[in-house]
Sequence to fold (282 residues):
Amino acid sequence: MLSSPLHRRIVRGTDMLKRVQQGSRRESVRSLERGLALLELVNETGGVRPADAARALQLPRPTAHRLLETLEELGYVRRSASDNRFVVTIRTRLLSGGYDTDVRLTEAVGPILSRLLQQLVWPVNIATYRSGMMVVRETTHPRSPLSVDRAMLGREVPMLRTASGRAYLAFCPDAEREEILENIRAQEQEADEPYLAPGAIDSMLRIVRRNGYATRLNEPYVTKTSSIAVPITVNGHVSACVTIVWLSSAMASTRAIKQFTPHLRQAAAEIAQKIASAELVL
Fold:
């Protein structure tokens, strides 16, 4: 039986749709392959410029730039503060649930953070410095009944506007501090300007060193909360910071400092011993 003209048109249309769908799938797979190759390149090199990525992967420069921007939008890479390179974020490293250093860090500090959670109830973070930001490497936010932001693991926070950033700046080597501050100045972010005013940084660093801890109290950055951070010093070098966060309206800063700081100092000393004994490089 011969098919009708209508039937033949339907068959042709169906075949064309299948070819379009197959072509779309092939293009999607190709884009995914390029994106993963680019992410591997950024991770392996420690940072790459779009032009260098295009040459290394034999991609058109606009394609490399578009893929890097897509990875940036998804949170897997970010632009370096000091140049036009793209570097990986903690989110990329969290793709591997078995990442050795993070697993060992969790094993080392987990019991200590659990004890702090029982003692203080308010959430506590462990943060380390990376590429111009402090990165939350471990946290009790998901377990704290008083947490206002449970999605803190892997969060990148600024240096001058947070307690952990200030604590790190106060106790890191002079050369490293100057490099960090130079990069912050180069970003020209309006929110950082008050802290970059003449004398402001020196005054802040002097107070943090005198107290042995840093604070963020009723300030524009995360207006509802305040925080205290204590440096974790391993073999004479600051490796990380332990920070507690609480609702500013729930407790006066003077009471919080008096109540929380001794526990944070004890935890910092214990964590430093754990990190040193585990030979962790954070």
